[in-house]
Design brief:
Chains A, B: One of its GO terms (molecular function) is DNA binding. Two copies of one chain form a homodimer. The first copy, chain A, has about 300 residues and is of the alpha/beta class. The first copy, chain A, is built from twelve helices and eleven strands. The mean pLDDT of chain A is about 85. The interface between A and B is large, with 48 and 47 residues.
Chain lengths: ~300, ~300
């Protein structure tokens, strides 16, 4: 068997994003945690962590983390069946990668019954919907919500539904910059709002109108900030319908150009041998996500 | 003079978080950008970038980036005075680090007149309020909003006002877990919601009640997701009053324990020789922030 004291030290340092906090989470001194990781590296003959801020797992470090994550889920199943094993610990943690717009809209209501029913707390890791899978490949999360269908080896993916994005701005922004009912070309000459370097929705929308090339934009890596920037007349941007139902109903935000929503499909990726807990979450999500997503 | 072709390549790769996107932003091939960075490193006799994903500047790389940022601001001032220099470029970009709760609440309305009046677009970089200054020290941003007062060498800090945080939950959560009007100790036995590993507000709140040690918590690095988790009865957490005015007025969220808000002071840090544009932004912010923050 592996030495799980050493692996737990590695997991704590990566999950808590630092040696001091990792040590605190384990109730150990920082030097004890450092020694465990050095011992692990000595046994493997190679480093498991890059000593950056925060510490980054090496490739072999990631494989070990992935393994720890799966072992934890299996342990939890066993504890449910052999309650004597339970050491009265804090609620189980599940690490899940998802896109910011999901976390800001349908996700909390969808997972609430699961968390409450199973005494589970969640570590949410934000990743753009097109790149979230890399966190799962890196062994940092137990499951992920992302726009890519193809599962990793050893994992499964299931379609949850799509988020519908519409190109929106305030009536004031449209009147000032787009002159009422404009030719689409005007859109590339006014600022857009883009979530981050991985967010290609605005590019896709412009491409769907036959426009390409660079366009001026604010970068705003916050779902709520994104909507607030729109509301402050600073630009146009692709927003999930789910997030701005009230603003659409009241006319505070309107389509910049009629009839071109983009539907982004969301898939639930989870390890095949992830244990009962992950299986239950999967079942709840696939059953309920259609309440919020376009299926 | 430095060779600004080389420095621009470095800045583009770091700001766009990749060689391919950096090259795209400059309208160059990826190999041209790689060559410029190699040439820069050959001249300096040391690396300016760690080839990670995304690429990270080395210490000397950070100093160069900081310099580029300041030169850009000075160039912009000169262009304002000598309009012939203006090459009809896209609007000027300013990179600013701030905490997610500011971006989700007062910031968009506070900067809107400045952005619209000066044709400036913003790159927002999210950092917890206690650690935002490291982005400025790293030369990655022109200015930052953070909770630390002491300015860096060459920079200035000005008090903007405080964000008031209250410990909130739904009435249903309180009834279920905290039994109406509970002893504070019950708070450590129910899940909290914590923004991320750097968020110490929940710890500070518990400490103010005389409680310490570990407590179970969801991690949710999204301001809007944070409030949605609260609303889904998944935990209690420290929320800016500004963000939930309606929920407080309607009684959808209530204080878990009376009378203990935490005021987090916010300071505006900016380079002393940052040019006219940064000076104007500074003036607008210090004049208007009191509309939203507690002063």
């Amino acid at each position: 068997m592996f030495d799980y004291k050493l692996l737990s030290a590695l997991a704590a340092v990566v999950e808590q994003a630092g040696f001091d906090r990792g040590a605190q989470a384990l109730g150990l001194s920082q030097s004890a945690v450092s020694q465990r990781i050095k011992l692990l590296e000595a046994r493997l003959g190679q480093p498991v962590l890059l000593r950056a801020t925060p510490p980054q797992p090496t490739e072999v470090g990631r494989r070990l983390l992935n393994h720890v994550q799966q072992v934890r889920l299996l342990e939890r199943d066993l504890q449910g069946r052999v309650p004597e094993l339970d050491e009265g610990r804090l609620p189980e943690r599940l690490r899940i990668a998802l896109n910011s717009d999901s976390l800001a809209t349908w996700w909390p209501a969808a997972v609430a019954p699961f968390c409450t029913g199973n005494a589970v707390v969640l570590d949410h890791v934000l990743e753009d919907q097109d790149v979230g899978l890399k966190r799962m490949r890196a062994g940092e999360v137990a499951a992920c919500v992302c726009a890519v269908e193809r599962p990793l080896a050893g994992a499964r993916s299931q379609f949850l539904g799509s988020m519908r994005y519409r190109a929106l701005a305030t009536p004031a922004f449209i009147t000032r910059h787009l002159c009422g009912d404009p030719p689409a070309e005007a859109l590339v000459r006014v600022p857009a709002i883009v979530f981050g370097p991985d967010d290609q929705l605005q590019h896709r929308y412009l491409a769907s109108l036959g426009l390409s090339g660079a366009f001026s934009h604010h970068l705003c890596p916050s779902s709520e900030g994104f909507v607030r920037l729109l509301q402050s007349d600073l630009g146009w941007g692709m927003v999930p319908e789910l997030q701005v139902r009230e603003e659409l109903a009241s006319g505070a935000l309107v389509d910049v150009y009629r009839g071109k929503p983009i539907d982004v499909p969301l898939y639930w990726h989870h390890w095949r041998n992830g244990g009962d807990l992950l299986a239950e979450l999967t079942q709840q999500l696939t059953r309920s996500a259609g309440q919020w997503l376009v299926v």
